[in-house]
Amino acid sequence: MSEMRFTKDHEWVRVEGGVGAVGITEYAQHALGDVVFVDLPAAGKVLAQGGEAAVVESVKAASEVYSPVSGTVTEANAALEDRPGLVNEAAESDGWFFKLTLSDPGELADMMDRAAYDAYVKDLD
Amino acid sequence: MPFDPIREEPLSHSDDTPLLTTPLDSLHRDLGGKMVPFAGYAMPVQYPAGIMAEHLHTRGGAGLFDVSHMGQAEIIGTGAAAALETLVPGDIVGLGLGRTRYTVFTNDQGGILDDLMVSKLAEDRLFVVVNAACKDADIAHMRANLKGVELRLLDRALLALQGPEAATVMARLAPDSAAMDFMTIRELAVAGIPCVATRSGYTGEDGFEVSVPADRAEELARALLAQPEVKPIGLGARDSLRLEAGLCLYGSDIDTATTPVEAGLSWIIGKRRRDEGGFPGAAVVRKQLAEGAPRKRVGIRPDGRMPARAHTEITDLDGAVIGEITSGGFGPSADGPVAMGYVPAAFAAPGTRVRLVVRGKAIDAAVTTMPFVPHRYFKGPSPSGV
Q1: Per-residue confidence (pLDDT) for residue B97, from 0 to 100
Q2: Which chain A residues are Cβ-neighbours of B237 within 8 angstroms?
Q3: How far apart are CA A90 and CA B123, in angstroms?
Q4: ipTM (interface predicted TM)
């Protein structure tokens, strides 16, 4: 399954073959403004659902990014080192933060799908 | 991601009192400003262009800032300068007519109560601009301690026009502005509106700060924004611009626990004042001037790209904590992280290697001179024939 799932904290995860790619949503990147640095977890790091996973820095502030699912990091997006602005340009595709092997795919069931997330965001504004 | 774009300390507001607004409040909203609480006021942290674009526009064109939340007052009477000198270490008596000077209010320990700009409109009339967050305390302080002079609070707006195109724009709307040197003041009609302008600012660029009657502030702002060089700039870029310029933010980089000498502001203490004293905390300040301060405010450049924010611990190469970052972030024009903070005198030499503890990780960094981006203040016309 490659459908995206979303958190109330504006992270997304897209799972393919047991590996999830994680990033922040279009709504989140817009609210943050220009991203100047992303502090990413190293491969092998074990993350719990809702635990601190990464930090995204704009000119003004640092914001924590929580892992939407539990698992073990396999890869950080090296492209963000040189081009943190990818998070602004392509938040929900090339601007992904890290990939992880899911330790409990059942966690996905309780997360929002696209339609539910869009409705959630609409209510925030 | 529980992002909170306004959680950084200078932009936070913790109590529940209703926010004040400046005379430009409706203009900010028309322009799409993202309003946040700052020093008790609703202020635009950014406009739709965003902090990065606003910062770069100010360095390349002209940026318009609403700084009406700052306090403006006049000190009137014979002996106004001498009276003010009892509260600040700057040479105000010796300040030339029509000139502006940066100074600080000190306390009896030599700590800094606020920083301010003082301009001499006449021998018996000073114009002062103080920080928004300190203005009530500053006014009470002046009322209690300035003897034999009148303190008149001004209900005026204050606009800053900053950047390499600021002079071009001002010359168009106020031809007399072209004759102004850096750190001078002049009464000036800008777009036909009676104003008092200083050639000064908080960005490291050439520019003007224009005091205008509150009821004509929006008219002035719209006239400036109608110029093709000018865009509105929020508090977010104001902070990144002043950080790159190495300028202190009161409450972060300087406060009652820092002296002017520690803060690297010894240059604001006039020679006569060093000799004579006569300001609060003079004994402490003069001792530090003579013997050196135990710690010093320095520029710090982290290696790599990761910003180190305020309150980040500074350690030596053995990991012992030696100080703290007081302002830090990403410098759009410096194209990298920049910071300032306090270190012991032994670590203050440019080039000294230190480490910064960011989220538990030690980042390599170097002490450096400031500014991070060269100042481009207007220093008068070139001598003819050169």
Answers
A1: 98
A2: 59
A3: 60
A4: 0.89
